[in-house]
Amino acid sequence: MSLLLSQLSRLCLGKPALVRRSCSSLLIISNGFSSSLPQTPPGFVVRANPCGEGLGKLLFLKDTESWFTHLEKKVPLELVDRDEMGTVGSCNGWVATLKDDGVLRLQDDLNPTTSHTHPKHISLPPLVTLPHCQTQIITNVSMSTSSPEDEDCVVAVKFLGPQLSFCRPAQSQPEWTNIKIEDPCFFSSRVMFSKIYDRFRIPGSGGNLIGSWDLNKPKNNPKIQRLQYQNLPKLTKIKRELLDLCSTSEHLVESRTTGETFLVKWFRKTSRRLSLMRTKALMVFKIDEEGNAVYTQDIGDLVMYISKSEPFCVPASSFPGLDRNSVQIVDVDENGTIRLHDSSIASHNIRFGAPYFIPPQNIDQV
Predict the structure, then answer these.
(1) Does residue 227 come out as left (phi exceeding 0), alpha (psi in the -120 to 50 range) or beta?
(2) Can you list the positions of beta strands (E) in 215-333?
(3) Contacts of 262 (CB under 8 A, 6+ apart)
(4) For the chain, give me the number of helices (H) and strands (E)?
(5) Which residues does 338 contact at the CB level (< 8 Å), separation at least 6?
(6) Secondary structure (3-state) at 316
(7) Could you give the CA distance from residue 51 to residue 340 in angstroms, rounded to a whole number?
């Protein structure tokens, strides 16, 4: 670990980052993202080393290893710029960019398994802004399949505010379907695709509601699930006061291997010394079909990954070296691990230009 800490210390403005273990990376066969093909472990892009002409070679950190993988893959440095992010979202290893022309593009440049000589760039139709909405600030991007090239793939884009837009990129003449969400509790929330319900879902701010939109007939008014919280953790007065001062975000996470749905509440607060956000608490609730949200400190063999990309989880046993019953976090200014059994937090403030966990990828893409 000391070797990796020193590496990150040199790479990330002198600030050390958390790395969880020292173990060789293994490729496995089944973890919920594929039924037959070997895959790479989850990880994220730390940065790109400049190599001339505005390009850089990717530096990738697999979650099973305590050292970086230096890739020959060259990407535009603007995609990993820590000062001014060149991307607006990510899902399944694809990143989204939005230029001044109002065209959203999906790119596989940051995916470590895809071609470095022929990266794929898919341009979607020009965005259409609904009345009293905006399309310059994107909350996140989600997809119904692993690739926007799939014939039945639907891309969902959640904008800050009431607009939610859908597009099928593989159609011969793709176009946007735009809806205007009425309930303001969804305005700043993130969209995710549910394999279990075959719908796009958004947790409302505060985590009391979950809205669901049909892939084929999206409507302004979603199907609403109301949550009833149970088995809430007992907090001291000091802890409650601390959480009241935090910025809270809600994230829906599904396990494809167990069929479970979780709601994660992530509490972060600005550090006085660094003026960066730092995790103060993270709570996981298991949600059933009736809307019961039961607090838990045991998700079994699972590992959750929460970042600016769509969240996901994998069985720790499918990749030797992963920490079971834990949540891994990456944001623009933080990297860390939360171990659920004792709610311990180990994180460090580091700036990342592409704070996206990439889920397991098939080896045959190399």
Answers:
(1) beta
(2) 223-226, 228-230, 247-254, 261-270, 277-287, 292-296, 302-306, 312-315, 326-331
(3) 252, 253, 254, 255, 284, 285, 286, 287, 299, 304, 313
(4) 2, 25
(5) 279, 282, 326, 327, 329, 344, 345
(6) helix
(7) 41
Long-range contacts (CB closer than 8 Å, 24 or more residues apart) made by 150-158: 154/193, 154/200, 154/215, 155/106, 155/124, 156/191, 156/193, 156/200, 156/213, 157/89, 157/96, 157/104, 157/127, 157/191, 158/189, 158/190, 158/191, 158/202
pLDDT for 269-286, tens place per residue?
Answer: 998 776 889 999 999 999
Percent of the chain with pLDDT over 70: 89
Could you tell me which of 247, 304, 308, 261 has the C-alpha nearest to residue 96? 308
In this structure, the number of other CB atoms found within 10 A of the CB of residue 280 comes to: 18
pLDDT at 218: 77
**Does the predicted TM-score (pTM) go above 0.85?**
yes
In this prediction, residue 9 carries a pLDDT of 44
**Helix, strand, coil distribution of the chain in percent, nearest 5:** 10, 40, 50
**3 state DSSP class of 27:** coil
